[in-house]
Amino acid sequence: MVTVLEQVKAIKNKLSEGKVVFGTHIVNTDLQLIELIAGAGFDYLWIDTEHSQADKKDVHNTLMAARAAGTGVATFVRVADIDPILVKPILEMGPTGIVFPGAQSADDVRRAVAACCYPPVGVRGFGPRACIRYGREDMMEYVQNHENAVFKLIQLEHKDAYADLDNILAVPGVDAFILGPVDLAASFGYFRNWKAPEVMAAIDDMIARVHAAGKFIGVSTGPYDTDNINLWLGKGVDLISVANENMYVSAGCKAALGCLRGVAKEIGR
Known about the structure:
12 helices, alpha/beta
């Protein structure tokens, strides 16, 4: 069994080597489907609780299903808000990392990092459970390395975060930033038009400044077509999260039905 510390180290090593880290979103709670996707070969699963119906029990079961795949796939849980009360029980379940949405200032980012770390660095309460496999792993090793035991991702999805980017980049403890293009565009007044020139210019500037600060940046996006992937990889993102189970199932259904209808038409049925 791959430990949480080993998962975090593997993601950091891949990023440090200049390789792109690939992930997909999990928005449902079907455990067989999660285990299937966990075995598909992605570097990480982005388990969403901000825009899904998942509760704490669902998250715990999802993490267990991901581990059951046996691939060592990393797991990032996106919480609904920057709130230590929301983060604490999730951390004890043993995810590889936490994704924080809605950060708009350096103070928000400091609160997010603090929620993931034990005192005196942060405010995390003590109660490790699944994160140390219920005692099968060395608790003191986990505690002593607590700052590296959680991969901390901050979403940049508001114009206020862009305005405060220099101060945000100065906050220690962040492992990667994630662009949220649609919400970012909405904050600029371009809802559903994230390719507006003003938004694209801000995105390009953020990527450049994050890299200049020696940090990593990724994107959370829906489409996984060649044009969209080329766009983001061409911009130099280090992580890319695409699609979700709904999109894969929908695409598979459309492909199957298209094949059925196509053959039936060819033979005049």
